[in-house]
Design goal:
The chain is an alpha+beta fold. The chain is built from three helices and 14 strands. Strand 2 and strand 3 form a beta hairpin.
Amino acid sequence: MRSIFLLLLVLSFIVCSCGGSSEASGEAANSTDTITETESASDEASVAAETAAPEPAEMARKSAPAAAGPFEERLTAGSVTFIVESPNASSNYFTLNTEGMSVRNEETKMEVNGAVVRAQLADLNQDSYPEVYIFTRSDNGTEKVHAFASYRNRSYGQIYMAEAENAANQRDRDGVETFELMETALLRKFSTPQNEQRSGNPQTITYTLKKGETSYRLEPVE
């Protein structure tokens, strides 16, 4: 009888031991699955973060196109001051204001292609009253000039540029032009193709300032 009792006790102990091991094994497996899922989620989050992260500031500066800054110039001749301003934005324009005109100081606003790069005073016709020349430059380097003359320092008006026959021919051939102010003339320079390369000796058209019936004109010296 005692032997049977001991046998039953031993069997009960063995059954309990096996059950505990199974539960421990199950808990261990569950723990391993949880760690694996956590690591996987962490890896995915890292990949997403790397993909969404912006490029370094230095690289961004190198890849971005250089933008021309706003332009502002005050040019004074005697009692008269010309004030040229431009935002040099994508849809660009400039404003011209004056101070010191005895009759009328008013703003002129003009839309332009390209950026305003410089403004200069001159007195091409040597009448002791200034003109202002505003130069713009497009992306390919071509310049344009917008000029205004003082009417005896009472008011001012736009100067018109007469077309020259050889200027039109040069534009058809090449299209890149620059300007340079001299003491009594405005030089319009065209770079000319040479073996598909731009020549270092541009052709030049000289303009002088003439007074018409109602306004001033830049006339080519043919």
